[in-house]
Amino acid sequence: MQQQGLGEKQVAQVRGFADQLLRKPENPVDPSNRRISLIVQYTDQGDAQEGKTAETVKKLEESDQK
Hints:
With about 70 residues, this protein is of the alpha+beta class. The chain is about 25% helix and about 15% strand. It is elongated and about 50 Å long.
């Protein structure tokens, strides 16, 4: 995904609920039950062009709230 432009710091969370939320509960060992969810932070193209990471954008947003 990084080769396609996803920044390393854009991945906020990786979640694995396959053991709790089975897609096919009738067959717990089915391969479709082995999955993950990625929570990705959106980065504006203008921010990316300026070299700002999602972490920098978050810090700026936090300082704006103070």
